[in-house]
Amino acid sequence: MRDIATLDIWITIVCLGLGSFGLRFVFLGLIGDRPLPGWVLRHLRYTAVAVLPGLVAPMVVWPPATGGALDLPRMTAACVTILAGLVTRNVLVAIVSGAAALYLMLYLVG
Amino acid sequence: MTPETTNSTYWQGVRAGAPFILVLVPFATLFGVVATEAGFTLLETIAFSALVVAGASQFTAVQLLSEHAPTLIVIVTALAVNLRMAMYSASLTPHLGRAPLGKRALVAFFMVDQAYASAILAYEKHPRWSVAQKLPFYFGAITPLVPLWLVFTIVGALVGSAIPPEFALDFAVPITFLAMIAPMLRTAAHVAAALVAIAVSLSLAFIPYGLGLLVAGAAGMIAGGQVELMQARRAEARL
């Protein structure tokens, strides 16, 4: 049943391991305690708040699980998660609310 | 603010990381299931989670390997999905750059979205923390996460396809990330960064291999930086 070459898998694992570490280490390791210029810092403040929504947006609008079709339960769950997070400022409450909304909608809509 | 000991920031980190167990467990399990279904052995699946420690990259690699993409393409694509880690690395540098090299290497090896998000949130909330307080917070945040990442990869590999699709585990990732983002939207600049990134990411969704996300991330960061600058100038003009 398996038709992937063992060597390919191990080459991928080792190169991905080294490459992922390289990506994570590049700035922390090389720049260290040299001060970064102000304009760099000003942009870095918005890394997380830009990259994470960018990563998630296509998954919400075109979920792979539905073959890319807009999905009411998943869209509702995403909105409930954001609202709960905005109102409570609490990550766990937002996750639990989002999951509850997802299961409730999946149960109702089917 | 009362001075906080190293020990107390470690435990604050543990408490900040702990909620993510809820989403990391299904995510890790799902990876074990997917890799096993693609024909990976238990050892290969474990090696993947232990050495790469990056869910999105791992899923991408397994998917492309089972599509028989050339190995080089698999590696480059999976790394591109993980390029955001370079941005995290840059973003943590002002906070942790003064730590010893070995510790910085450990921070890098265990860098995952949830640890980064918890840490940067805490560092912004506590600008007066020293490196000796920031570092334990980070290691605290990964303490409940990384070991479980491995354990539940193994669980997933062992239970295989026993988890029915009705559990909608696919949506564990978006919900976690959205839950992390919402509390960060404190200023107009943060909101602008998020909205611009979403708009660009959606309009560039046709670009394969996660490259659209890089452009979206950069656009969002520039938007945030510009709004901050405009607000600072306006505040100055009022003085």
Automatic annotation (TrEMBL), chain A:
InterPro entries: Brnchd-chn_aa_trnsp_AzlD (IPR008407)
Domain of life: Bacteria
Keywords: Membrane, Transmembrane, Transmembrane helix
Native organism taxonomy: Bacteria, Pseudomonadati, Pseudomonadota, Alphaproteobacteria, Rhodobacterales
UniProt name for this protein: AzlD domain-containing protein
Membrane-spanning intervals of the chain: 6-31, 43-62, 82-109
UniProtKB/TrEMBL annotation, chain B:
TM segment ranges: 16-34, 46-66, 72-93, 105-123, 135-160, 167-185, 191-224
Keyword Magnesium (UniProt): no
Family named by the database record: Belongs to the AzlC family.
Localization per record: Cell membrane
Primary location class: membrane
Family annotation (InterPro entries): Brnchd-chn_aa_trnsp_permease
Entry superkingdom: Bacteria
A single GO BP: L-valine transmembrane transport
Organism in which the protein naturally occurs: Pelagivirga sediminicola
This protein's UniProt keywords: Cell membrane, Membrane, Transmembrane, Transmembrane helix, Transport
CC annotations in GO: plasma membrane
Membrane topology category: Multi-pass membrane protein
A Pfam family assignment: AzlC
The protein's name: Branched-chain amino acid transporter AzlC
